[in-house]
Amino acid sequence: MASQLLRSATVMILLSVLIAGCARRAAVPSVKSTSHQAQTMGYSIQAGAFRDVNNAVRLTRSLEDRGLQAFYFAHSSGFYKVRFGNYPSRDTAYAAARTLRDSGIIDAFMIVSPGEYELARGSGKTSGSIRDDLARTAQSFIGIPYQWGSSSPGDGLDCSGLVLAVYQLNGLNVPRTSREQYSGGTHVHRRHLEKGDLVFFSTSGSGRVSHVGIYIGENLFIHAPGAGKTIRTESLSSDYFRHRFVGGCTYLR
After folding, report:
1. What is the pLDDT of residues 57-70, one digit of tens each?
2. Which of the residues 189, 211, 243, 249 is marked catalytic?
3. 243 an active-site residue?
4. Is the pLDDT of residue 139 over 60?
């Protein structure tokens, strides 16, 4: 199954992002996130099996141009696959996929059901174990560079897109942009941050949220820093981030 491949392989997720970066508003998904708590994922569509990452990039961009949140990922087999959408039922997901197939946008596809996520299968999952899963998924992104999806300089793996991918790969959905993620969660004092919580910054120093990372414990967080750089771990105590820290929030309480 697709979820088993994701867990068994060293997963690399590459997202085609919004042209204006972390703070740009994305298209609304078929199932919306509930304020203050992450909503479990509905049904998603998976398409493509590409040897060439550029083909996955082109499909991802084509889907996003049609208002769909999409990301592509690679595992150790070397194939890149594209996953998109968050639908309330298998029938609606299938209908959307069939329309895209009939339009020539995608070819073969499969429907990823909510039951395929570890979260759904693990009836004994605790908040702590879910947080550990989120931290491990975020850590699997470390070292992945920006990947351009087109000639536009804003295309690549952005900060809020990283958050979205990490949560969705664990069967949870959150808002798309950093500002929406900040306003949609339950605010947490820095001293009370736990693994999987989100940390927000104002890179301009204006106090307006423009950047987000995923807290992994011990005063560290993982983020996508910007064009030409790789996803990395940073300390909240560093001079740069300490002076630009806006606040933290959680979707897990």
Report:
1. 789 889 989 999 88
2. 211
3. no
4. yes
Catalytic one of 159, 192, 243, 249: 159
- β-pair type (70-74, 12-15): antiparallel
More confident position, 71 or 145: 71
Token digits of residue 61: 């961009």
Q: What is the pTM of this model?
A: 0.79
Q: What is the pLDDT of residues 172-204, one digit of tens each?
A: 999 988 999 999 999 999 999 999 999 999 998
Tell me which of 172 and 229 has the higher pLDDT.
172
pLDDT at 241: 96
Confidence of residue 29 (pLDDT cuts 50, 70, 90): very low
* Structural domain for 192, as ranges: 2-250
Is 211 annotated in the active site?
Answer: yes
Active-site residue, from 22, 75, 187, 223: 223
How many structural domains are present in the chain?
1
Catalytic residue status for 187: no
What CATH number did the domain enclosing 92 receive? 3.90.1720.10
Maximal CA-CA distance, the chain: 53
Say how far apart CA 61 and CA 71 lie, in whole Å: 9
